[in-house]
């Protein structure tokens, strides 16, 4: 028998995330509110990342074109910074091996 997908209100989600900080434990809040830990962790990430814009409607993002563009550019920036950091480490590793030769 499969479990039925539960729908939670925006207020419920926000209160659950607030309880994480009040109780100090995701596991404890999950047990108290009968929520899967993966779901509660996802809600917490949403609040951290999007703050007031978390949980719009039924999960469909109601971002304006500019907000989508900004989110896309932020993602690209993060990816490029990661790539840069990897290349910096590679350069330092290869330059160390050149010195040893």
TrEMBL record:
Organism: Yeosuana aromativorans
Coiled coil: 63-90
GO biological process, one term: DNA transposition
Keywords carried by this UniProt record: Coiled coil
GO terms of molecular function: DNA binding; transposase activity
Keyword rRNA processing included in the entry's annotation: no
Protein name (Swiss-Prot/TrEMBL): Transposase
């Amino acid at each position: 028998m499969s479990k039925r997908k539960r729908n939670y209100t925006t207020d419920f989600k926000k209160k659950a995330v607030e309880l994480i900080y009040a109780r100090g434990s995701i596991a404890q809040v999950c047990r108290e509110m009968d929520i899967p830990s993966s779901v509660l962790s996802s809600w917490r990430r949403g609040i951290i990342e999007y703050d007031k814009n978390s949980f719009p409607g039924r999960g469909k993002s109601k971002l304006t074109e500019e907000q989508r563009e900004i989110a896309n550019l932020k993602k690209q920036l993060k990816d490029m910074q990661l790539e840069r950091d990897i290349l910096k480490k590679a350069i330092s590793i290869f330059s160390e091996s050149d010195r040893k030769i």
